[in-house]
Amino acid sequence: MIGRIERGGFRAYLQPNLTAIERIPIEIAKWDLEGRPVSAQFDERFFRRGISHAMMTKGKRERAGRLLGKDEKRAALERFRRLAEDARKALLEGLDRAVERRELEERFARIAAWDVLRLEEEEQRFSDVYRPVPILPPDRVLAFVVQLTEGCPWNRCSFCGLYPDRAFRAKDSGELEGHVRGAIRLFGRSILLRRSVFLGDGDPFVLSDAKLLPRIDRVLDLVREESVSGAALPSPGDLYAFARVRSLARRLPSGLGPFRARGFRRIYLGVETGDPELFRLLRKPGSLEELPDAVRALKESGIAAGLIFLVGVGGARFREAHREETARIVSSLPLDANDIVYLSPFRLVEGSAYARWAAAEGIEPPARAEIGADARLLAERIRAAGSPVKAAYYPLEHFVY
Ligand code: SF4
C-alpha cells in the first residue's frame, strides 16, 4: 500500500492497484487506477462494476445477486461519485504532507474525470474489442480475457444460454493482435487488477495443435511486448481456459505438454452431471466415458483440472441419480488436492430445449434453498467417497466481466 490517510470521518487506502475510500463506518467503495468504479458496499448491499460497464448487486435478501438496469446503475454510480466528492473535501482539508497530498489529489482527479456519461461510453469501447464474456470460473474472475476464439464449437447443450449470439470461429493472427492490443488499451492502468490470462471463449482446444499453438504464442508475444513497453500485464505464464471433454480426451496419447510449457495451470471442463441419462438429456457433446482420458491428459501434463457440475438440474426426478453418479464419477478420477470441482446452481434459460422438456415433463426448477442443500450433500458424498479434490460453490449470477 502506498498510504492510508484518515481525516474528518473518511479513510483512503492508496493501494498500488486501486483506490479504496471509506466513509467510516457506513460505506466503502473502490476505484481502479484509471478512476473507474470497481466495487462498493452501500447500505449493506454489495455492488461490482465490470470493464464492460455491466454492474451486479447482491444483499441479504438477494443472495443470488442480479444485474442492474440502466437507472439502477446510474443511481449506484451517483453513490460512488458522492462518496468520492465528500471524501475529497474532508481528506484534503489541511493535509500538509506533500507526497500524500499530491497522490490523493491525482487519484481524486482521475475519479472525477469519469462522469456517468463517460462511464456509459465504456460499453461501446468494450464492444469494439470484446464479444460479451458471460462467465469465468470463480477463481478466475479477475483474469485478463483474450478471446482467441469466439463462441462454443458445439453450442447445442439443451440448457445452455452462454453464447447464443455467436457462431464459433478462431481469430486470425492480425485480428488477434488488434484484439489483444485493444483490450490492453481498454483496461489501461486497471490491468493491474488482472491476475492471469484466460483464453476464451468456450473451447479453443477444438482447434488442432497446429492451429492453436501459434495463436497462443502470438498472444503471449503480444502480452510480453506490451509489458516491456510499460503495461503491467498479468504474467503470460499463468494461463487458463475452458475446454470440452472430447477436445482434451483426444489429446491423451500425445499429452498436453506443449500447453503446460506455455504456462497453462488449469483447464475447466463443464461436465454437468455424472448420470449418463441426464448427460444425454442435457445434450452434452461426447460421452462420460471420455472424461477419464481428458483428466489423465491434464494430470499427466501437470495441468490442474477444474470440473464443473450443475446442481439442481433434472429436478426431483434426477436428484438422487445425479448426486450419486456425480460423486461416483468424481471419486473414480485421478484427481488430487490441486484440482477443483465446482458445483454450479442450475439456472433455467427461458426458451431453451431444456425449459421445453421440463415444462412438458412437469419438472419444476428447484428452489434456491434446495440447490444449496443439494450442493452440500454432493460435496459430502464426494468427500465420503475418499476423493481428495476440493468441492466449491460456483454461482453464475454474480459474474460481471
Ligand atoms: S459445451 Fe458448454 S458452452 Fe458449449 S453449448 Fe454446451 S454448455 Fe454451452
Domains, number? 2
Largest sheet: 8 strands, antiparallel
Helix- and strand-based class?
alpha/beta
Give average pLDDT, whole number: 94
Distinct ligands, ions and cofactors found in the model? iron/sulfur cluster
Write structural notes for this entry.
With 401 residues, this protein is α/β, with parallel strands linked by helices. The protein has two domains: 3-121; 130-398, TIM Barrel. 39% of the residues lie in helices and 22% in strands. The protein has twelve helices and 17 strands. The strands form three sheets. Strands 1-2-3-4-5-6-7-8 form an eight-stranded antiparallel sheet, with helices on one face. Strands 9-12-13-14-15-16-17 form a seven-stranded parallel sheet. A two-stranded antiparallel ribbon has the order 10-11. Strand 4 and strand 5 (37-42) form a beta hairpin. Helix 1 packs antiparallel against helix 2 and helix 3 packs antiparallel against helix 4. The longest helix has 23 residues, at 70-92. It is globular. The model has no long low-confidence stretch (mean pLDDT 94). It binds iron/sulfur cluster. Iron/sulfur cluster binds at residues 152, 154-157, 160, 162-163, 202, 244, 270, 285.
Quick take:
This protein has 401 residues and is α/β, with parallel strands linked by helices.
Keywords:
39% helix, 401 residues, alpha/beta, 17 strands, 12 helices, TIM Barrel, binds iron/sulfur cluster
